[in-house]
Amino acid sequence: MSPAPSRLPVSVRIAATGRYLPPGVVLSEEIDALTGMPCGWTHAHTGIRERRHAKGTTAAEMGKQALLEALPESGWGGARPDLLISGAGTPQQPIPCNAALLAAEMGWDGVACFDVNATCLGFVAALQVAAGFLGCGLYQRIAIVCSEIASAGLNWKEPESAGLMGDGAAAVLLEPCADGSSAFLGARLENAPEGVGFTEIRGGGTALHATAHCPGSNTEQFLFHMNGPAVFRLASARIEPFLAKLIGTGEGRWEAIDWVVPHQASLPALTHIRRRLRVPVSKFVEDIERTGNVIAASIPLTLHGLIRSGRLRRGQTVLFLGSSAGFSLGAALVRY
Question: Which of 71, 104, 120, 154 has the highest Cβ tally under 10 A?
Fold first, then answer.
């Protein structure tokens, strides 16, 4: 069966972005103490100096703060979105979905709500969904919010993964673009099932229900686990052929792309991927040193910083790129 003809590009505009970082700064030296590693170990292995850990708040409350920063900048004149998508990888609770909890926090009655969970690629996946809806005219204003509290599930017996993760929230507001000057240009998601067990939290679902938790016996099954070296090897092997299917392989493929906004996984991973893909240093945005790996919020938080700094200008092209549990790779190309 032949694939459906492409209807790209889709005229979509990023109207505004917002962010929220909880006030609790955790230095890498504190992670060293919690994990029993020598002072300086966490920074040396992750490239992260500090990250935020949320205390006494919820993902919905954090998402609300990100939305409250974004909405006044949107030009929507106080109007709320027609659709609210949560792209977070950490659920506040099993049900209802994060988007419904956030809508309740905002006091929004009648707004369509659902979650897109692709762990660290949640924003990239949600962006594809939103572009499709805007392109067919089903919605006119869409808010994507990624609000993550990764610190709640860290395993301090795994120093590398425990030192990577940070908390935070980002909001991205989208709308149609009448003149086509801004657009969703394309995207790709691809899964490699041999890596399905490399990054996981086994407990809490139906296979290992919360009622099966026995403190002191199987607690680690309910905490974040990552086989970092295995993820690194799989990502390295697959990233080049994966990206070639979206932007090609020619020597000049980076000339048409102004910025590469990667998932902020770890500084060694970012450095390796940039070199492997031969991305010019001047186009590759790193923002991990002060925030850590904030799961799905990582890419939109980095995007927000790029916009607020004035470096990203209207008409420029941005490539979002990352990997996630599953094992999945994802990328999206947008003209801002």
Answer: 120
